[in-house]
Amino acid sequence: MTRWGLIGASTIAREWVIDAIRAVGGEIVSVMSTSAERGAKYAGEHGIAKSVTSVADLVGDPDVQAVYISTTNELHRDQVIAAVRSGRHVLCEKPLATSLEDARAMVKAAKDAGVVMATNHHLRGAATHRAMRDAIAAGRIGKPLAARVCHAGYLPAHLQGWRLDRPEAGGGVILDITVHDTDTLRFVLGDDPVEAIAFGQFGGMAQAGLEDAAMGVLRFKSGLIAQFHDGFTTKYAVTGFEIHGSEGSLIGRNCMTQKAVGTVTLRNADGEAELPLDHRNLYENTLLAFDAAIAGKGKPLCGGEDGVWSLATGLAVMKSAQTGGTVAIETGL
Question: Where is each Gfo/Idh/MocA-like oxidoreductase N-terminal domain found (predicted)?
């Protein structure tokens, strides 16, 4: 059983991660919020024994073995480095940081400390994407040539806040959503992006020059090109994830979501067939792999270096949207 501390009394922990930790047998022993009142209220609501107001107090607690970090993005670097240097394993929300230099420093600190570091790209835990990855690896669509991702939806009022009005915190749709597309494409394809070109959109929801929607194309090392549409402003869109190969296509529907739902259709010369899916809570899958990695029995579903890749791609997409040109994706790893 892993004993967890939470850095950030966050909505995502409330809605998804606390229950997932407990579902896989973990225990949450402490939560940190800079507001003592908020922290105490959050701890009481969720049956957490301790609430503290500093990172040092949380990572210095001998009862805490692992830390889940879900603060705003500009705070991640210092919090991750403090946690790993104290010997705690870390699961950090995406994007890892707001700069590649910071993200690489976080990964290096975890390696130096000999602890497990993972990025919470939850879509790797989806049955849909796992089935697509396995089908591609088995050669069922031949050589992958193209992909399309629709990850546009509507950002609910209770999540709007800093994502729409704080560039310094890593707000905007690209660092919130496009990074998920990148990671899912890398996971499913076993391939890495090398360049990006994109347009941002300002649909009236985001402020301070932040994009609330984006469309673009990524080119991968294999030559595959992937189109993406991400948005906070489309109330009635349906998400999708498609991979088209030389011998077939995989069509994922309603799959770019936190929920354990969706379907995958394989289309080829034989017609159409639904792939069998073993749906399970995405965050539970993430945490099971994390616990196994702590026990030396595998790797996290999405490691720290994977988080660097998705951040590098997001930053390249942002730069392309600002400049109008194609931008190379370089991680510096």
Answer: 3-121
